[in-house]
């Protein structure tokens, strides 16, 4: 019995989304490891794992034999660049939210703290609270 590429991608994407929703639903500062981290991580990991092989199959199917290596290389390069950009965005957001580790928010040089203000721009500069 074969499931096919589309069904595996749909099921894997659904499981990955379910795992991410589990992270969002159970994220608490006092949450336990098994409930808040391990459970959603396993669900999300299984879903993402179910997507890797069908994506590789879909990317190299119907490609001329002399161009199969190029298609596979393009897929792998796209995965690496996407992962790098995604990690950079997540680290930037996490650093912005958590501060410098000592409880102080990270601010850009030359900006003043404005209590109760929102991000914006004046004539001379832009600021983030």
Question: Layout of SSEs?
Answer:
Elements: H1 5-26, H2 33-60, H3 68-98, E1 120-121, E2 126-127
Helix pairs in contact: 1-2
Attribute tags:
129 residues; two-stranded antiparallel ribbon; mainly alpha; 2 strands; flat
Summarize the structure.
This protein has 129 residues and is mainly alpha-helical.
Distance between the termini: 57 Å
Secondary-structure element order, N to C = HHHEE
What's the total helix number?
3
Strand proportion, as a percent range, falls in: under 5%
Radius of gyration of CA atoms, rounded to a whole number = 21 Å
Summing up helix and strand content along with how strands pair, one would put the structural category as: mainly alpha
Which residue ranges are poorly predicted, with pLDDT under 50 across at least 5 consecutive positions? none
Kindly state the percentage of residues in helix: 55-70%
- The largest sheet has its strands arranged as 1-2
Shape: flat
Round the mean pLDDT to the nearest integer and report it.
82
Mind summarizing the main beta sheet? 2 strands, antiparallel
Number of strands: 2
Describe the protein's architecture and organization.
The chain is mostly helical and 129 residues long. It has a domain at 1-54. Helix content is 63%, strand content 3%. The protein has three helices and two strands, in the order αααββ. Strands 1-2 form a two-stranded antiparallel ribbon. The mean pLDDT is 82.
